[in-house]
């Protein structure tokens, strides 16, 4: 049985595969982190960079994953996106947006994808 970190990585892999195969995105980075921030997926499509928060819930009893994206989480996501762009200045001319994808159940089913949450 996978631990929480392994389950998170599996959810990120399923989310990336979905976005690549069904939505035409390209993966730039996965599980990117510094000492102070992290980004689950960095994707691109049509000269836009998508900083994607992956939310997984095995059971819906504790609410949906997207419900956990509050003001504080959005602030963290913005800060992380700025950090990523500092390390990858070649993408500075691209449009940027924060996105979220939700997965649920033991099969990591995609239940929601919000292309731009701000």
Please explain how this structure is put together.
It is built from 2 helices and 5 strands; from the N terminus they run αβββαββ. It has 118 residues and is α+β, with helices and mostly antiparallel strands. It has one domain: Trna Endonuclease, Chain: A, domain 1 (3-Layer(aba) Sandwich). The model has no long low-confidence stretch (mean pLDDT 90).
Provide a brief overview of the structure.
With 118 residues, this protein is of the alpha+beta class. Helix content is 31%, strand content 36%. The model has no long low-confidence stretch (mean pLDDT 90).
Q: Which labels suit this protein?
A:
31% helix; 5 strands; 2 helices; 5-stranded mixed beta sheet; Trna Endonuclease, Chain: A, domain 1; 118 residues; single chain; alpha+beta
Structural class: alpha+beta
Write the CATH fold name: Trna Endonuclease, Chain: A, domain 1
List SSEs in N-to-C order. Answer: HEEEHEE
**Proper CATH architecture:** 3-Layer(aba) Sandwich
Widest beta sheet: strand line-up: 1-2-3-4-5
Separation of the first and last Cα atoms: 36 Å
Average pLDDT, to the nearest integer?
90
Shape: globular
Q: Strand portion, in percent?
A: 35-45%
Level of helix content? 25-40%
Which ranges are low-confidence, i.e. pLDDT below 50, for 5 or more consecutive residues? none
Number of strands: 5
Summed up, the domain count is: 1
Q: How much is the radius of gyration in Å?
A: 14 Å
Strand count, sense and barrel status of the largest sheet are: 5 strands, mixed
- Name of the CATH class: Alpha Beta
Number of helices: 2
